[in-house]
Give the backbone structure.
Amino acid sequence: MTQKSSKLPEPKPGIPKGTALLNDPLFNKGSAFTMAERSALGLSGLLPSQVCTIENQVERVMENYHKKSTDLERYIHLVSLQDRNETLFYRVIADNLEAMMPIVYTPTVGSACQQFGHIFRRSRGMYISYEDRGNIAQVIKNWPSRDVRVIVMTDGERILGLGDQGASGMGIPIGKLSLYTACCGIAPSQTLPVMLDVGTENETYLKDPLYMGLRQKRVRGPEYEAFVAEFIEAAREAWPNVMIQFEDFGNKTAFRLLEIWRDKICTFNDDIQGTAAVTLAGIFSALRLTQKTLLDQRILLLGAGEAGVGIGDLIVTAMVDRGAKLEEARSKIWFVDSQGLVVKSRTGLAEHKLRFAHDFRQIPNFVDAIEAIQPTAIIGVSTLAKAFSREVIEKMSKINERPIIFALSNPTSKAECSAEEAYTWSKGKAIYASGSPFPPFNYEGKTFVPGQGNNCYIFPGVGLGVVATKSKRVTDRMFAESARSLAEQTSQADLDMGRIYPALNRIQEVSAIIAAAVAEVAFRDGLAGVPKPANTLDLVKASMWKPEYESYLVK
Ligand code: NAD
């Protein structure tokens, strides 16, 4: 007996033991710990006798998943699994990515945020409260990992299309980081969701006894910016290689924070830059169908917020890369906002719209703007449901043989037009994409599969490219490259069925190739913190974490 136990394999260093191991979602394997691991790691007697494979465990999770009757219950089921066993959670997601993306992210994550204080089970990530100001560097030390590479942070002011959710907006950084891991293998241990809790204007939450954030109106102005700056400086001190993604900040704050930080640290804003890249990729694919060039385009956007202006800026970058002068490129991009066409003579235009305010007469109405501008493409990022009316689509079809119609507002109920409307009113001519998914549609015997301009085509690949190269910055050129790479990976078969993006079930391979393209930019522009390897794709693939159990025993 003594002889037998003396042959027991040793556990690897750094692995927790006993109940601490079972309660650590990064290390826990639940019923899949082998008998040898159970002996070596103090787990004997703490688990049922049967050793399960990960496939058994997936089957058990899915059996329970299918018994849930609402998407919110499915969300709670999956998030609870994530809090128990991250490897199994990501294996389940990887096996069911397309079906589960709308559960772990939009639209279900929106309902989860609205119910956050009521469905809360276990804390995840860091809540940096305004009360912590002056002491944030100390607070950050409570986070157990010394190797955080990706932070997604929000202040909850503009969560999806749901407005101010305060601290309940934490569901968004959590969900987004899940997609970084699921789509592109950023290791869960290297991710950190952050809620910067500065209060909320949401009266319902302020009165709700179960609301979990600071019960006060938002801190604004210089105090707010100093608080954000203190967090960013502390985070960079603690994790020098970290990339910080701004997510779902209010419109003005988002532009301002990006301006302050983009050239100082490794950061980007997905609502502005990620949306822009996925839309530019859609345009590149559409141009393969119209056989026209980017410089031939005149693009009219409905909505001049974070998404719209981000799209405008990136298209301009891509046009300049193709030889256009800056002003010439800007002259091809037009906006209509809630007050009509964005033109120079309008007073009180927000700072971010000024560069697209053209010397032109005022036109209050979108249809009249189409008539005047004669665009080749219209892009809806207005949250104005049904704004692309029959008249709009018919007018676009008269001007263009193949009109480009992107109705990107979310959720589905806010879309500027449905896939069915775009195809029917254009008599099958429209090149269509949406923000929320629409089912395939048959028009006069031809089946169209509408593309979804989902940001998850872009940000995981950008993140992996940045993390793998330890890039010092995230640049517009990286987003332009990611757009080019995504469009390039859209096959002729995709285009033939009207889909201007690759199928979502290819997202992992697509993201790796985007990451390699982003890494190339980091090397070319002297931003990388690692030496250039012979093969960039190999470098990014080697950085990809996989949802597989590793042995915790020394061989
Ligand atoms: P935002 O609040 O920053 O901007 C909204 C803009 O719409 C503002 O400029 C506003 O003036 C304009 N608007 C409002 N009512 C209007 C009206 N009646 N007519 C014309 N314009 C009007 O929001 P955002 O971040 O730019 O997002 C806008 C929409 O785009 C949201 O529905 C969002 O879900 C969607 N979006 C989609 C994707 C995607 O598909 N990948 C990505 C990001 C955002």
Residues 270-290 form the longest helix (21 residues).
